[in-house]
Write a structure and sequence with these properties.
The structure is a homodimer.
Chain A: H1 3-16, H2 19-26, H3 30-44, E1 49-51, E2 56-58, H4 60-85, E3 92-98, H5 100-117, E4 121-127, H6 134-137, E5 141-146, E6 153-161, E7 163-167, H7 169-175, E8 189-192, E9 199-204, E10 209-213, E11 218-220, H8 223-231, E12 236-240, H9 241-249, E13 254-256, E14 260-261, E15 265-272, H10 279-292
Parallel strand pairs in A: 3-4, 3-5, 8-11, 8-12
Antiparallel strand pairs in A: 1-2, 5-15, 6-15, 7-12, 7-13, 9-10, 9-14
Helix pairs in contact in A: 1-2, 1-3, 1-4, 2-3, 5-10
The first copy, chain A, binds a DNA duplex through residues 1, 18-20, 28-36, 38, 51-56.
Chain lengths: 301, 301
Amino acid sequence: MGQLEDMYLFSRVVESGSITKAAEQLNIAKSAISKRLAALEHKLGIKLINRTTRKSSITDAGVHYYQRSKLIMDEVEELNCQTTSTARELHGSLNIAVPLSFGVLHLAPALDLYLKQHPLLNLNIDFSDKKIDIVEQGVDLAFRIGHLENASFQARKIAPINAVFCASPEYLNTHGTPQTPHDLKAHKILKYESAAHAGYRFFSLDGSEQLVQLDTHMRANNGDFLMAMANAGHGITYLPTFIGWQALATQALVPVLENYQLPSMHAYAIYPANRHLPLKVRKLIDFLVERFGDNPYWDQI
Amino acid sequence: MGQLEDMYLFSRVVESGSITKAAEQLNIAKSAISKRLAALEHKLGIKLINRTTRKSSITDAGVHYYQRSKLIMDEVEELNCQTTSTARELHGSLNIAVPLSFGVLHLAPALDLYLKQHPLLNLNIDFSDKKIDIVEQGVDLAFRIGHLENASFQARKIAPINAVFCASPEYLNTHGTPQTPHDLKAHKILKYESAAHAGYRFFSLDGSEQLVQLDTHMRANNGDFLMAMANAGHGITYLPTFIGWQALATQALVPVLENYQLPSMHAYAIYPANRHLPLKVRKLIDFLVERFGDNPYWDQI
DNA sequence: AATTATAGTTTCCAAAAAGAGAACAATAGT
DNA sequence: ACTATTGTTCTCTTTTTGGAAACTATAATT
């Protein structure tokens, strides 16, 4: 195998953190990686990765080689696209990680369309709400909903995410309809995700702000489940419209506290902070931005 | 084989001008080149070289791919050196073409030393006075003596080349010693090379210039032969000091017309006008410049 | 126009390289 | 000390690659 392929192999080892993980991601035997890495090191005459039985650490020379290799691989990729794309379609594989609900509900149909437009692309998709390390996992593209904390990657907004407090009419009939954030304390709250943010920060329409701590009746890391529970009258949930739009449209769920807002959120496409992002990925992002836009279809009802 | 290796293969085909020549230079069967080039084109989805049975011409896409490939290969080469050289010697192969006389007399001893300093280098040397196309031949380095006409390559002066009209004492005793350029018309001239420059342009020490056409008694494209003939009393020759220095020192040959000069010449190292010249080549040039200098040993007597 | 010479392709076969899988070795964490 | 896990080594199989010669097409020659 060629030098360029060795570079790729090596970069996968570096990014995934171990030979074993790299082998899994690349779907080849770890013995192959071990051998080729050793061969590369022998050819260069210098150790790139210090290996102990339990952990590997990159050497100084390895860091340098890795960084330069990245640039070179980017250039090759770019050249291949440039040379090819004049006469050909987007092709190759698209490795993406998507959050469960948003992925199933909105990305899946969009990807279906995108792949029909570019039949030479093949898709490798991982549904999960875990916040993966895109570099370590070696994915081309992932998605985040909410806010971006660290910026160890590039990001682009693909849609605004609105959410409303809502409940089933039956529930509200029984328990009453809250008029102020404070009223929520008397209600059963169905909350998304972990204990990370224990309180909600409300902005009223006149601009004033209040923080309200709420006990939760149920907690889950899946929006569809929370919607189903709200539908079944289990309480009030703060539901993104991309999940609840249809239920809200049919009045199966009714919004409450419409005069108050919580901090706005966005859906982001995130990708490794490389110098160059492959055309197939950029095009996909463009496509999604175009499809969802500033006022996505699920908010247009 | 890897993509990078394909690039190299392709560039050799482009530079040599044909698959067959590239195969000869690379010492592999032309069938291999044909197959791999076809595979590369297939992968890119575009023809890089238009082939007819008798000649090949590069396509537009091919030109683009070639140029970009060159840059990429340079970067890889540079990276390899950088990564490697911290802990290792110069290595790899050195492909050079040298002129016959100068090569045997002065480059050979220098190369001997250089290779002893860098034992991991292996040498591939072609002695010939033909002016080869360094790109087409795929050599790393070649040498020219005289003047550079076209500049389809980079060049660096490695030594001044002086030459004097001289003859054996016996000859001068018999035929007399010329005092002016014009006097040479009465002498037997042993001339280097072809009919290219039929006349000599003399500069006298006071700066005046005169062109003298001389008939030649003997013509050869080998300086050693001309020196031997002059030694044997066959006539007057315009002999570079790098050939004649010892004969001149021992008075086996005596200079004439020392008050006149011909246009000055230099020995040049020439190399392809790439962006980056390999370290092993640059070091060799440095070494030669250092060794010969502005006043080479053959002129210090 | 027929012939010749040459450049590239194809085909077949041998050789080399690469990957899989299992056994093995080494060590960090328990 | 034990265990789990990581990387290496070994053998075997599969895949890829390269060489040789036959084949094809066409430019140059006659």
